[in-house]
Amino acid sequence: MGIALVGSLAVLGGTVIALGLPHGGSDGAAPSRQARAVPAEAVEQAPDSPEPVPPAASPNPSSSPSVAQDPKGTGKFSTAAANGPAVGRGTVRRYKVEVEDGIGIDPQGAAAEVQAILADKRGWTADRRNGFQLVADGTYDFTVRIASPETVDRICASAGLDTKGEVNCDVGRQVMVNSKRWQSGSPQFSGPVEEYRALIVNHEVGHRINHGHEGCPGPGKPAPAMMQQIYGLNGCVPNAWPYTADGTYLGGPSVP
Fold first, then answer.
1. Fewer CB atoms inside 10 A, N or C side of the chain?
2. Which residues are CB-contacts of 52 (< 8 A; sequence separation ≥ 6)?
3. Contact (Cβ atoms closer than 8 angstroms) between residue 57 and residue 103
4. 3-state DSSP call for residue 142?
């Protein structure tokens, strides 16, 4: 399997989905094995301008420039104790967000960012065939795990993927996010690191819903979210989203 790198982002054009109360590459990424989906009739579409999530009592280390970009993790993970509404239509995939202990990233803050990305109207719910729901426990389809480069390498290597301490991968029921990429973005991706976080999530989740890699559609055009942007833009401009705000798919030619 080729390794794809993904970018990401946290500020979603002003869209934030409120979390429930606690219960208890890269510009491309490595392709993954698909998670099992939970069918649903039709679930709530994310509103265009939902109420913002109140700030947590402590600052979110994931957005602090003072946090080390390559810390050593403990190998153990903490699950964000938060639940959200189902967003999108069709097949709803339930997901958890976990953060490796010791890397200085707050699980609750990370879950809020991931949830907002997957609920954004420029994301995969725009196809009206896919939906997502953040859960803290119970049944789930996949986990978004943010971990140190060393831990990401170890877990990705179990599926034969070489992430070289630099990129993300999607393996089994896990979207593995390299904390170095989450904290510092990519040299190929201009703009705020929050945008790159969105690219990471959209690229890896795109693999889970059967999207393969895509190339640049032409000079000056937005790079597809499924493009391995970390390897170069080939004339395209950086972009973190699979769709425009009006629902136009930002795709490109299929590549291996």
1. C
2. 16, 18
3. no
4. strand
At residue 10's C-alpha, the angle toward residues 5 and 14, to 5°, is 135
Whole-number Å distance between alpha carbons of 59 and 17: 19
pLDDT at 9 exceeding the cut of 90: no
The b-or-e profile of 121-133 (16+ CB within 10 A means b, else e) is: bbbbbbbeebbbb
30 strand-pairing partners: 169
Q: Are 188 and 233 in contact (CB under 8 A)?
A: yes
Could you tell me if 39 and 91 are in contact, meaning their C-beta atoms sit under 8 angstroms apart?
yes
CA dist 250 and 214 (Å) reads: 10
pTM of the model: 0.74
Structural domains present in the chain: 38-54+67-231 (3.40.390)
In the chain, DSSP finds a helix count (H) and a strand count (E) of: 4, 7
Mean pLDDT of 235-240: 96
- Cα 51 to Cα 33, 65, 255, distances in angstroms: 35, 26, 39
Kindly report the number of other CB atoms within 10 A of residue 14's CB atom: 11
Tens digits of residue pLDDT in 33-70: 433 333 333 333 333 333 333 333 332 333 333 334 56
Q: Is the pLDDT of residue 98 over 60?
A: yes
**Amino acid occupying residue 218:** G
Nearest to 46, CA basis, from 70, 15, 20: 15
Alpha carbons 199 and 3: distance in angstroms, whole number? 15
